[in-house]
Fold:
Amino acid sequence: MITAEKVNKLSNLDKDQLQGALTTAGYAMCEKLLQSKFVGITTGGDFCYQFTYKDTYSGLLSIGKLFVNIDATGNIVAEY
Structure:
């Protein structure tokens, strides 16, 4: 079940919190998120964000999607 507390917490993450989740997940293509936007909840219960970043390899602006949730220990985890 998705609680109101979980919706409030995971739908209001800022780009710094998402950057930390990306770093922890091992996403090395972006040094810094430029923008992020909550776009919805998947049928699996993950919270989806779209983000813009400067690709460290190509130097181009790119767009990615990040799926976040809370693990059993209460930490925010991410998949991209």
User: Anything to note?
Assistant: The chain has a mean pLDDT of 90. The CA atoms of residues 26 and 79 lie 9 Å apart. The two ends are 23 Å apart (CA to CA). Residues 4-79 form one domain.
